[in-house]
Design a protein that fits this description.
The chain is built from 27 helices and six strands. It is mainly alpha-helical. The protein is globular and about 85 Å long. It comes from Bos taurus (Bovine).
Amino acid sequence: MTGAKRKKKSLPWSKMRIPRCEDFKQWCRRRLPILEWATHYSLKESLLPDTVSGMMLAVQQVAQGLAFAVLSSVHPVFGLYGSLFPAIIYAIFGMGRHVATGTFALTSLISANAVERLVPLSSQNLTTHSNTSVLGLSDFEMQRIGVAAAVSFLGGVIQVAMFVLQLGSATFLITEPVVSAMTTGAATHVVTSQAKYLLGMKMPHISGPLGFFYIYAYIFKNIKSVQLEALLLSLLSIVVLVLVKELNEQFKRKIKIVLPVDLVLMIAASFTCYCTDMENTYGLEVVGHIPKGIPPPRAPPMNILSAVITEAFGVALVGYVASLALAQGSAKKFRYSVDDNQEFLAHGLSNVIASFFFCIPSAAAMGRTAGLYSTGAKTQVACLISCIFVLIVIYTIGPLLYWLPMCVLASIIVVGLKGMLIQFRDLKRYWNVDKIDWGIWVSTYIFTICFAANVGLLFGVVCTTAIVIGRFPRAKTLSTKNMKEMEFKVKTEMDDYEQSTLVSSLSGVCNEEATQPCLNPKCSLVLDCSGLTFSDYTGVSMLVEVYMDCKNKSVDVSLVHCTASLIKAMKYCGNLDSEKPIFFESVSAAISNIHLNKNLSILSDHSEI
């Protein structure tokens, strides 16, 4: 008995496999995606477009770094650090090859709440005026960046914890309407926060529930204090930025290098302000002294982590959701895959490690990612090259931006949010596809405006979950036995025509077989949609994506048993083939159509001969 017991205890250990060198290499490739694409990097094909894209991206990183640092209520130089270190870390651990990580408007706005609450502007007179040993900045500025770095550190720890718990699989609850509404609402908040710089007004920091409305109430109450010079310069900057960027977009196929209007505007405004002494003549607020160099790393203050936990959760969730949407969009556009859990690790480390280098919370930005698309970037090498140019700015050009007017910087922020603000146009699509998604968008946007981005995101996820649970009892369960018999019968009938047909059943989720490449050049796919009792915008988009993928691979797709609402939604959502019918009342009707098309193609081949 004793021997038997010992044998039983040793049994689990005998089943354990000793890790091999190959397993370690595979783990490294999975957790360090740079090892996967760097080994296949083509210097001849990719280096030139990546270099051009990196130069253009560096201009955006510098402009947005300065602007979003001010938005985060810290010294502008810390925005330059936030444009450098997170980009390097994400290039190593991230899977999005066209995602530009760095300072982000939404996370900066969230961290500003913690900065203003723990180190308010009124405490500046209470702190010592002596400069610290770090870049010659005051104790007040170092206290503020300490709070922002603490938010970044704790937010990154939360993201890494979510990676360990494998919570990336739960992101299916964060649907496209929720992300669109949350980012649009947060962009509206950012524009509102820049109103004081655009108008040249002195305004106290206003946040909290309904703070959005209190800001505009304060503006209208003190409308006489608007600085006319700042207002005119803001309007001129916005017009120039919008006009030149639209021209770049129109002629991007004819010109290889687009005009870096952000950099040109910053240089022109700084030079004009210096020559005319606008700071003293008109009282125009400028960026001020920007010290050179990078200070040695320092741990963020750990004693205030409990005080910033709310903002840290907001940074972790909002930053991850916005970044994941961009990574998935680039992966879909350029045909590669993105692991949701790996993105948690990449952004978590980008925040944790960068917090030791005085960085504000980071995430991927839509404007910078779109810039990589338009300039033809191939890989994350473009982001690494942009970091070289950001380093040059930090060590040489940075102090020359002393005279950059704050109203110009605010104009760059507002125009950079154009991609988020025009998401209002999505409302028409949601209304035509699924009115429930339209309601989720509107309610999520309202909650984001009234409270905050993280509150709006949470509300949208809860609404989506409740609606899915409410719709789930209406779902049907189809007999797979009948489907197997139908599939066998169809394949038997079509053998004479040397054409293969796959009959697939849809019950809420599209079959992955539908997207697999077909070995036979003449394939057909029949999707039985009788199990789809409801269809939202995300589901319809996925179905249209399957159809377009099959169409690009010369696979004919037939949809049977579709409801009238699904047919209407798919016709509105996608560019379906108008020449060939794709919707049928039954599987047999779809099969008959496949027979007919095959006979017609045979007759056509004979007539050509």
